[in-house]
Amino acid sequence: MFRQLRLVILLALLLAACRSQNRLQNVPIASGQIKIEIAEDGFYQVTLRDLDRAGLDIEQLDTQPIHLSQLGTAVPYLINNDSLIFYGQGPADRYTVTRPYILRVGETGETMPETAVSPQTDTPPPAHITRQQHFEQNILYEATIPTPNIDTADKWFWQTIPPQQKITIPFNLTHVSDGSGTLQIRLWGTSHDPTIENDHDLDILINNQKIDTIRWDGQIDHTATLTIPPGTLQNGENTLTLDNEVPGATFLDITQLDWFNITYNALPQADADQVLIQDANGPLTLTGFSDRPLVFDITNPDQPVRLTGYTYQQGQIQFTTTGPQTIVAIGPKGFRQPAALTPVRQSHWRDTTNQADFIIITTDELAPALKPLVTARQEEGLTVAVVPVAEIYDEFGFGAATPSSITRFLQYAWENWRSPAPKYVLLVGDATSDYRNYLDNAPRNIVPSPMVNVQFGGETVSDARMVDVTGNGRPDFALGRWPVDTPTAVAALVQRTLAYAQSQPINQAIFATDGTEAQFAAIAQTLQQQTHFDQTKTTLLNGAPAREVAAALSQNPWLATYIGHGSVERWGKDDVFTLDAVPELTPDAPPIVLQLTCLTGLFAHPELTSLSEAMLTHEKGPVLIIAATSLTLSLHQEPFAISLLNNLQDATYTRIGDAFQEAKLALDINNAGLREISDTYVLFGDPTAPIVRPES
């Protein structure tokens, strides 16, 4: 008896240890709440053991009140064999990989209603059912494609179909019946010949059998629906061929494949222990289940209904629907599993007694490396709040890791915290425009940035829009970002930023210009005149090579401005300054760097490192950099530059964030071009950092 008691105690201790390992370490956890993350549509089963491992204290699911919700709205659920079963839907916006559902213990939720189906009639069931398969891969990103809603935009494509070529894509189907069906395919017309009507045409073949020819006109998306004749589809592997080899209306015909659906007649058999039937109407006999299935009506996926009263025998069910209905029958092995189960974070950010001058938004992993910066700013008299994004998501976004969750937090702090309201915000963490990580190279520590439409590049990221909490189209905080991904990188930036405050630059300002066009040197002269720079204290480098520019930046000037063409990785068409030149920077007092060019601040590119990021993270690089994430014109850059350069020379502005913010607020955002300057110019650096000017 004593040995049995010891064994029970030992097992209890081991269970407690396992549970503690699954809890988040050293972070506050909300009691009685779990976040269930869903990656795709379907019925999900979460067992009591799953919840226990995730850290939820609950003894029995069928005896304690529970509440399941998504974005604050109750979600119907079913308790079956001590498991939570519900219909989950994948993410609806572009910013998240999963959609979070919140399960709370101690609050009564909405149980799933039940309806009894009609028994089997004398009418024989159909020999086949309708099944649909969706095929999609997201490999190619096309930013310039216009979309009606930027937050739900799908700008990722599968494959390019070049002119005079064809592509063949294999796909698999199960339980094919008579080989007939329907193909729905979405394409984008990349090229356009205005002299030709219907300048896109593709022959569509399935299993080498021509189905039809698709024709459309222009640079638009086109969705075609084609009939697949009986005998075409086959069980197992099939092929879809998009043939652009056949001479068409125009020689230059380039299209992109987005996705395709195959809707086909299938045998009424379970696949992976489940069957989904669209437009079910009348008697049904479904076979192939591992054990007695559960049956649901998801005609309205937000309000699923459990169906009862069907007959079951040896893996087969029979019943009659009163359709048209969308029916799902699921055996014990057919339920999906959540992408993740995580405790909900507890926070105090809704406490209206909070007050902060300076908010730093970052991740749990990066936050500890910020302590020296926090201490330094507190010693200067600023109140500082370091806010983990995970707490923002759970408290202000119902668990959703989106830019809008961050906006709602900042809006709440702006409106409800004690005065004075927050003035400065620093985002510490990387970002990517590949929000769903299609390319499988996303940063580990992400503080996301929202997308905005822009005139020339289609769309780009805009931190400024994320901190517009009053809805007036302008940033409401002096904002900066450190787009870094490791604690080591954060610690280095903290050290270099604090060291910059003690540096002693010389009274010299550098103006580097792209020598391929005379207008850029002329703009430099205009800026110097409009901002009253002492001509004897400025150096103009017009069309200088990268090595000469690096040498000039290493002579400790207090300010450097570049004007000209640019791209993500370089200044100028003739390599005025490039990624390869960054290691040549060796100043003791790094300058403030203003870049009046395009794209050198595109920190969210999923595959490239921007020039601004490379300079910011180089051990001798500048710690205060201003650059754009988009393509903008000199016409619109110039008024922003005049305001900013004047502010940088004005001793009443002591912190870089104030000078940067006031230059943005001076812009007339009713002008679309100036609005893009406000949206897309980024301060790479701490907005509370001092402006270090030469003593003279």
Main features:
696 residues, alpha+beta, Rossmann fold, 4 domains, disordered N terminus
CATH top level label of the largest domain: Alpha Beta
Q: Tell me, briefly, the overall form.
A: flat
- Tell me what portion of residues adopts beta-strand conformation: 25-35%
Q: Compute the number of strand runs.
A: 40
CATH-assigned fold name of the largest domain: Rossmann fold
Contiguous low-pLDDT stretches (5 residues minimum) are: 1-24
The averaged pLDDT comes out at 93
Instruction: Label the structural class.
Output: alpha+beta
Please report the number of helical segments: 13
Task: Give a description of the structure.
The chain is α+β, with helices and mostly antiparallel strands. It folds into four domains: 86 residues, no CATH class; 138 residues, Jelly Rolls; 115 residues, Rossmann fold (3-Layer(aba) Sandwich), CATH 3.40.50; 182 residues, Rossmann fold, CATH 3.40.50. 20% of the residues lie in helices and 34% in strands. The strands form ten sheets. Strands 8, 20, 21, 22, 23 and 24 form a six-stranded mixed beta sheet that branches. Helix 4 crosses helix 5. It is flat.
Summarize the structure.
With 696 residues, the protein is an alpha+beta fold. The longest helix has 21 residues, at 2-22. It starts with a helix and ends in a 12-residue tail after the last strand.
Write the layout of secondary structure elements.
Layout: H1 2-22, E1 29-38, E2 42-47, H2 48-53, E3 66-70, E4 73-74, E5 78-80, E6 83-88, E7 99-105, E8 114-116, E9 129-136, E10 140-141, E11 156-157, E12 159-161, E13 166-173, E14 176-189, E15 200-206, E16 209-216, E17 221-228, E18 236-243, E19 255-266, E20 274-286, E21 294-297, E22 305-308, E23 311-313, E24 316-330, E25 340-345, E26 358-362, H3 371-379, E27 384-388, H4 389-396, H5 403-416, E28 424-428, E29 451-454, E30 458-461, H6 463-466, E31 478-482, H7 487-500, E32 506-513, H8 518-530, E33 538-542, H9 546-553, E34 557-563, E35 566-567, E36 570-571, E37 577-578, E38 592-596, H10 611-617, E39 625-628, H11 634-649, H12 656-665, H13 672-680, E40 681-684
Parallel strand pairs: 8-22, 26-27, 26-28, 28-31, 32-33, 32-34, 34-38, 38-39
Antiparallel strand pairs: 1-7, 1-25, 2-6, 3-4, 3-7, 5-6, 9-19, 10-11, 12-19, 13-18, 14-17, 14-19, 15-16, 15-18, 20-24, 21-22, 21-24, 23-24, 29-30, 35-36, 36-37, 39-40
